[in-house]
Design a protein that fits this description.
CATH superfamily: DksA, coiled-coil domain
CATH class: Mainly Alpha
Distance between the termini: 24 Å
Largest sheet: none
Radius of gyration: 20 Å
Order of helices and strands: HHH
Strand content: under 5%
Number of domains: 1
Structural class: mainly alpha
Number of strands: 0
Helix content: 55-70%
Length: 122
C-alpha cells in the first residue's frame, strides 16, 4: 500500500530535520578539529606539555574523527532518501530486500531506512 501525501510530507520534514541535526554535528566536529590543530601547533599553549594530556587529546581527536565519519555517511543516506522521496514517491518506503512496505513506525524513527529491518535485528 502506497503512503498518503500527508505521510510523505511528514517524512520529508523528518528527513530535512535530521539533515539539519547531522549538519550541526558535523560543523561541531569540524570546529573542534580546528581548535585541536591550533592547540597542537602551539599557538594557544603557554603551559607545560604533559604526555597524559597528549594521550587524552589524541583519543578525543580520534573519537571525533570516527563520529564525523559516521555522521557523514548518515548525511549521505539522508540526502539519498530525500532524492528517492522526491523522484519516486510511489516507491519510497518499499523494502529493497523484500519489496514489502517498510512499517511507517520504522520510517518515523529512521526516515532514510531502505529495508524493513537491519540484518540481525530482532
Amino acid at each position: 500500500m502506497a503512503m498518503t501525501e500527508d505521510q510523505l510530507q511528514y517524512l520529508e520534514t523528518r528527513l530535512r530535520e535530521e539533515r539539519e541535526r547531522v549538519g550541526v554535528l558535523l560543523r561541531r566536529y569540524e570546529e573542534r578539529r580546528g581548535a585541536s590543530q591550533l592547540e597542537a601547533s602551539g599557538d594557544l599553549s603557554d603551559y607545560p606539555f604533559h604526555m597524559a594530556d597528549h594521550g587524552t587529546d589524541t583519543y578525543d581527536q580520534e573519537m571525533d574523527a570516527m563520529l564525523a565519519q559516521r555522521a557523514s555517511r548518515e548525511l549521505e543516506e539522508i540526502d539519498d532518501a530525500l532524492h528517492r522521496l522526491i523522484e519516486t514517491p510511489d516507491r519510497f518506503g518499499i523494502c529493497e530486500n523484500t519489496g514489502e512496505p517498510i512499517p511507517f513506525e520504522r520510517l518515523d524513527l529512521v526516515p532514510w531506512a531502505r529495508v524493513c529491518s537491519e540484518p540481525g535485528a530482532r
